[in-house]
Protein: Zinc metalloprotease
Organism: Nocardiopsis tropica
Amino acid sequence: MCGLALTGTVAGLPPEPAGAETARTLAPGEEGSLLEECPPGRAARVSDPDAAVPEGGELTPQQAEDYDRRFREALVPLRGQEMQAPRNVPVVVHVISAEDGRGDVPQARVEDQIEVLNTAFSGGYGTDGADTGFRFELSETTRTVNDTWFTRFDEYRDTIRAELHRGGAGTLNVYTAQLGTGLLGYSSFPQDYEAAPDQDGVVLAHDTLPGGGRDGFDLGHTGTHEVGHWLGLFHTFQNGCASPGDYVDDTPYEREAASGCPVGRDSCPRKKGDDPVTNFMNYSDDGCMTHFTEGQARRIVEHWAAFRS
């Protein structure tokens, strides 16, 4: 049930028709339950949405449904309480580099990444951007020189994160390394913190931080995108044109990820609105991204109260 799905469609099958639901019934003799929890997911950002997403790097509709169910259950005891964004989220950046100096991100660029996060989450990149209330403060930068960890991060990620992780559920851990061709970054989700606290955090290709030289992706918005996942948001193209989309009411449906900056694209014509190409939770180039919506802002505040406060 939780096999890899690309941009809301199952690989090898045609897209769901507009308005189709993602749930299905079990075939006769098929074992398992549609209600069983899917394994922990990680939401990746890639530079080419037409290329294969790394295994486990995209949520299936069932995984997204499971995360949303756990989210709604966690909100039940919080009913009637005022929910607010934290004043400042402490950030620990773990810079992993090679012995020859590759990936040794200068401190100035680390600080620039924090500034990008604060501008993005305050709505400072466009007139249509919501101020989410979230602000980020760099509390520590660790530096590790290890050729194997730098070039093969994904292979050793569990060990690396277990050894380097700092703080609790409310501390954002960011790891930078070389992630290979096409992969820009990925993140854990808040629902998984309790089960694996030392694996919580965001992983970024070192050249996606501001000034890193990654063509089309060096303004720091891979960080913005992945922190959005860390706070509970799905991709804008989650579930494609099928309900419930990305589970946010004010982000229009989108059949598949955007590439470049195709403003005015409408890949779900039976649904209201053009594709959310400039939303931070898309795959558009960094220079195209401008905002989170008010609905996304509410959702991350609620996720914070449910899992990270």
